[in-house]
Amino acid sequence: MSDGVVPRRAAVVIGGGMTGMLAAAVLADHADVTVVERDVLPDGPLPRKGLPQARHAHILWSGGVKALEELLPGVVDRLVACGARKARIMTDLVSKAPSGQWFRRFARSHHVNLLCSRDLLDAVVRERVLRDPRITLRSGTEALALEGGADRVSGVRVRSAQATSTLTADLVVDAGGRAARAAVWLRELGLPPVPERTVDAGVAYASRLYRAPGGASDGFPVVNVQADPRQAPGRGGIITPVEGGRWLVTLSGTRGGQPTADNEAFLSFARSLPHPVIGELLTDAEPLTDVVTTRSTANKRRYYEKTPRWPEGFAVLGDAVAGYNPVYGHGLSASALSVLAMRRVLRRQHLTAPGTARRIQKAAARPVENAWSLAVGQDVFYPGASDQPPTRLERMLAAFVDRAVDAGSRNPRALRVLLDVMSMEASPARLLLPDMLALVFLGRKKPLLDGPPLTRQEWKAATGAVPLGRED
Question: Across the beta sheet with 314-316, what order do the strands follow?
Answer without folding.
Answer: 135-139, 31-37, 9-14, 171-174, 314-316
